[in-house]
Amino acid sequence: MELSGHRVIDAPREQVWEALLDPAVLKACVPGCTEMSGTPEEGFEATVVQKVGPVKATFKGDVRLEDMKRPDSLTLSGEGKGGAAGFAKGGADCRLSEEANGATRLDYDVEAKVGGKLAQLGSRVIDGFAKKMADQFFENFKTQVEGPSEADGGVAAGSPEPAEGESGASKKGGWFGRKRAD
Amino acid sequence: MPKDGGIGTSPKRREDVRFLSGTGRYTDDINLHGQAYAVFVRSDVAHGRLNGIDTEAAADMPGVIRIFTARDFEGCGGVPCGWQITSRDGNVMQEPKHPILAEGKVRHVGDPIAVVVAETLAQARDAAEAVMPDIEDLPAIVDMKAALADDAPKVHDELSSNLCYDWGFVEENREAVDRAIKEAAHVTTLELVNNRMIANPMEPRVAVGDYAAHSDESTLYTTSQNPHVIRLLMGAFVLNIPEHKLRVVAPDVGGGFGTKIFHYAEEAFCTFAAKQLRRPVKWTSTRSEAFMSDAHGRDHVTKIELALDEDNNFTALRTDTHANMGAYLSTFAPSVPTWLHGTLMAGNYKTPLVYVNVKAVFTNTVPVDAYRGAGRPEATYQLERIVDKAARELGVDPIALRRQNFITEFPYQTPVAVQYDTGDYHATMDKLLDIADHAGFEARAEESRKKGKLRGFGISHYIEACGIAPSNLVGQLGARAGLYESATVRVNATGSISVMTGSHSHGQGHETTFAQVIAEMIGIDADQVDIVHGDTARTPMGMGTYGSRSIAVGGSAMVRAAEKVINKAKKIAAHLMEASEGDIELKDGQFTVAGTDKSVAWGDVTLAAYVPHNYPLEEIEPGLEETAFYDPANFTYPSGGYGCEVEVDSETGLVEVVGFAAADDFGNVINPMIVEGQVHGGLAQGIGQALWENCAYDADGQLLSASYMDYAMPRSTDLPMFKVDHSCVTPCTHNPLGVKGCGEAGAIGSPPAVVNAVLDALNRGGIAVDHIDMPLSPARVWAAMQGAGANLGAAQPAARSEDTAGGRSVGTP
Fold first, then answer.
1. In this complex, which of B125, B129, B707 lies closest to A120 when CB atoms are compared?
2. Strand (E) positions, B11-55?
3. Could you tell me if A20 and A121 are in contact, meaning their C-beta atoms sit under 8 angstroms apart?
4. Distance between CA atoms of residues B256 and B201, nearest Å
5. Interface of B with A in 656-685 (CB under 8 A)
6. Domain boundaries, chain B
7. Which residue of A87, A113, A119 is in closest CB contact with B704?
8. How many angstroms separate the CA atoms of B573 and B492, rounded?
9. Chain B residue numbers touching A117 (CB-CB < 8 A)
10. Is it true that B31-138+202-255+260-293 and B167-198+296-468+634-799 share their CATH fold?
11. CB contacts < 8 Å between A and B, how many?
12. For residue B788, what pLDDT is reported?
């Protein structure tokens, strides 16, 4: 399946770029990630625990950063093997552009594939699952980059647009207000 | 004898007592002392290079006895294919090796890579999860048309392409057919998909291997429709075990539908591992495994053209089919789209010229082989759909168009090699219209209209070929086996009888019907007759059950053996009564001398045979046991008219089958109740294919319909009460019982009837739709109703009218 979306992150483009290369940030952003180690150059090793439809598994695999064109774009790709549960793999083409107010717009095109038991038992739910995973990842990423907010409420102009079709469960105004509040 | 147990009566099935009371003995009920458990590690990618298998961690896990990989099978053969097809250019088909465990590459999701054998099933499962194959993904081939492109990745690197064979039949007719189509007054063209099926027998496959060191004998207990065939293939071609050291037992088997004909790697594995480990090894398929390791069925993409003259007589028929073989050649796979399909393309019709082209293609999917009907449903579906379409185009009644072109004189030599011995198609059509109350259809349609439903009536008139087959003929056609059948009739001293048949019952009720035949021939109660099957140590070499051949071929062998027994018994009776052998008659279990009141009972003669105190020892041997091998002179040709009545919801496209009638000519019928049950089951499967069942792969070769959440089996509540009739009888002319076979007819004749009914409903409702590909799910029917074209709802791009002749029959459900 394929899906696209974008986030507007209230941080300079260089800062967003650095965050994309940071295993600690990635670990905090990948839903269900329990371990993440490595370097942007060598790639990261990751362990992710996830439940897809009726299949729950621990996926071990690697995450690679490719086609890095600092600070414009890069491709994040990963593949996880879940043993008897099958495998999941996917990639996100990320593009960074500067917004007028100094914020950074992150556009992404995500592609995800599953195989084995995940495909056999979970194919009905996999599209929704992948959409949720991607949405959570980029929302978490935005939060990580912007840092926790003290302000509450007040969805400002230029508020983030959620990924296509996803309701704004994560529209927590406080998360992106800190810099503005400063 | 009173007609409560012989031929033509309907005693209840004796085997059902054990099946329904939980006392059946299925393969999974067999647990041997010291047994270990095997769990297969299977590929979860459709196509990949197997660079290595890390078994180290798994080998150290609790209870693990040994982990097997392809390396352990060096010196063994691959899973053999039993039928060789020759292409139009004279070359024989491409036949890749089918290893027991993957060698170098994996070629479909479910392809076995390694096997863990452990003390318990749970330990084997746990360790199997720890086996780490190193697989480098390769692009998967799922689409048959794409598979034949010059630059397509190859499923088998050592083959020249993904084309298994390109078969033309009858090649000499090709130019005449082309000319007739060019010169025809009208040509109807249809492009269609025969959707891929998964057989789903209620009992998954099981294998238990055992080895007796003291005698060097191997035994395999397996869920098979033909234990002798498995013994021959596995012993001679895979494991190099001579037949006298190999016994194959197929005990109670819970449904086969074709998918249990074939020799599978798991059977060879368990037999092999038992000898290696010196202890029994058992494998029981999980349901998930069954979806990706049992041979699938159908999966044809076809373009068919029917030429008619100005009077609507059929003048020529041309078909172009792509048949999916899957990743490897299953045992009889090559024969299904060719000889079991092309030879039926005349159908019930006098079409003088027929040409069939079939391209068999390797793809990264589960192997495809015979499934209830095997080739004949594919032929029937094409024919009965194109005739309906022609009728609509010409504005004539589809029933009248069929009748006009029916074959009426027998024997009839078709232009596609086979000769029909007998039949009466008008009679079955008449009977069908009667039992379906065709005359009352318009009134029922009016009632439906009032409810906002579109009602339609669809017809199909099939012919099929059963009782496979004359051995010398199939040998010429590429079969690597003879297709006779065998039986031993063993009369015991006190008169009871054991019949050892090479046929195999896995739901058909042989134990009841075969006993009825013997009871009728001798005039004793059927409960004096026991039918033994499914064990190579107890039955003569026989070919097993498939292709609706049991009663026509296996039953005939039994009759021949029983005739030998009766002839010998008459000699004994003649001696006992001091009469001439020629005057002895056997009736109701009594031997009598014609024209006298002398008689001697069956039991007295049988006792004399084994206690030969007063016996013609100088003329005949003691004992009363005879074996016969029967090789049929021809196929048998059941035929029939099927009528389906549906209501289509005009808002949602939901199809409800509101009536289904089947008028079959099966020749003579042994047990009408069992025949009716066979037809019911076949109809359920055929209607299931037409409306619900579909095996779906995604573009990467991932199997999506791999559980009952996604593979929709027909349920009793989905089906109407069937009206089934088999009173139209034209007995088979060349077997002793005059029987034809009834096991597959329902699945052969019903899919086109259902599709024709839905299209009839839509067109009557003013919605002009030519064709919808099976299964006719609400989404597909609704899409067609919205004018989306035949296939937009089908997710089957290859079957679009401008882009046929290839592609895939599989898509998202």
1. B707
2. 36-42, 48-54
3. no
4. 6
5. none
6. 16-23+484-630, 31-138+202-255+260-293, 167-198+296-468+634-799
7. A119
8. 16
9. 44, 288
10. no
11. 47
12. 62
What burial class does residue B13 get, using C-beta atoms within 10 Å of its C-beta: 0-12 exposed, 13-18 middle, 19+ buried?
buried
Q: CA B698 to CA A6: how far, in whole Å? A: 28
What pLDDT, on the 0 to 100 scale, is given for residue B3? Answer: 59
- Which numeric CATH code is attached to B31-138+202-255+260-293? 3.90.1170.50
Q: Which one of B111, B125, B702, B812 makes the best mutation probe of the A interface by having the most chain A beta carbons within 10 Å?
A: B702
- Give me the pLDDT at residue B632, please: 96
**C-alpha span between B424 and B28 (Å, rounded):** 45
Which chain B residues are Cβ-neighbours of A83 within 8 angstroms?
129-130
Q: Which residue stretches of B661-776 are H helix? A: 672-691, 745-764
**Counting Cβ atoms within 10 Å, is residue B215 exposed (0-12), middle (13-18) or buried (19+)?**
exposed
With an 8 Å Cβ cutoff, is B121 touching chain A?
Answer: no
Structure tokens at B510: 């042989």
- Is it true that domain B167-198+296-468+634-799 has CATH number 3.30.450.40? no
**Cβ-contact B635, B469 below 8 angstroms:** yes
* pLDDT at position B463: 97
pLDDT at A88: 86
**pLDDT-derived band at A149, boundaries 50, 70, 90:** low
In the CATH hierarchy, which fold is given to the domain comprising B16-23+484-630? Aldehyde Oxidoreductase; domain 4 (3.30.365)
Choose the closest CB to B288 out of A87, A120, A123: A120
> DSSP 3-state assignment of B550?
helix
Dist CA B399 CA B382 (whole Å): 16
Residue B28: CB atoms within 10 Å: 20
The first and second tokens of residue A177, run together, are: 């207000």
Closest among A124, A93, A115, A121 to B699, alpha carbons compared: A115
pTM for the model stands at 0.91
Amino acid B809: pLDDT? 44
Distance, in Å, from the CA atom of B36 to the CA atom of B28, rounded to the nearest integer, reads 13
Cβ neighbours for B346, distance < 8 A, ≥ 6 positions apart: B317, B354, B407, B414, B415, B416, B418, B463
- CA distances in angstroms from B506 to A60, B256, B715, listed in the order given: 44, 6, 20
The pLDDT tens digits for B626-643 are: 999 999 999 999 999 999
Q: Give the minimum alpha-carbon distance from A120 to chain B in angstroms, rounded to a whole number.
A: 5
| CB contact B54 to A (< 8 Å) | no
Supply the pLDDT for residue B730: 98
Q: Check CB contact of B795 with chain A, cutoff 8 Å.
A: no
Low-confidence ranges of chain B (pLDDT < 50): 1-2, 790-813
Rounded to whole angstroms, how far apart are CA atoms B1 and B10? 15
In order of B468, B473, B483, B484, B553, the CA distances from B632 in angstroms are: 8, 10, 8, 7, 6
Q: How many residues does chain A have?
A: 182
CA-based max dimension of chain B: 86
For tokens 């999980």, what's the residue? B286
Pairing of strands B246-249, B217-222: parallel
What are phi and psi for residue B725, nearest 5 degrees? -135, 135
The DSSP result for A15-29, as a single string, is HHHHHHT-HHHHHHH
Cβ–Cβ of A117/B292 closer than 8 Å?
A: no
Domains annotated for chain A, with CATH where assigned, are: 2-177 (3.30.530.20)
Strand partners, A5: A108
Q: Tell me which of A58, A113, A118, A120 to substitute to probe the interface with B (most B C-beta atoms closer than 10 Å).
A: A120
Read off the pLDDT of residues A93-146 as tens digits, 9 standing for 90 and up.
Answer: 999 999 988 999 999 999 888 888 888 877 777 778 888 888 999 999 999 998
Bridge partners of B212?
B217
The answer to whether residue A171 scores a pLDDT higher than 90 is no
Residue type, A38: G
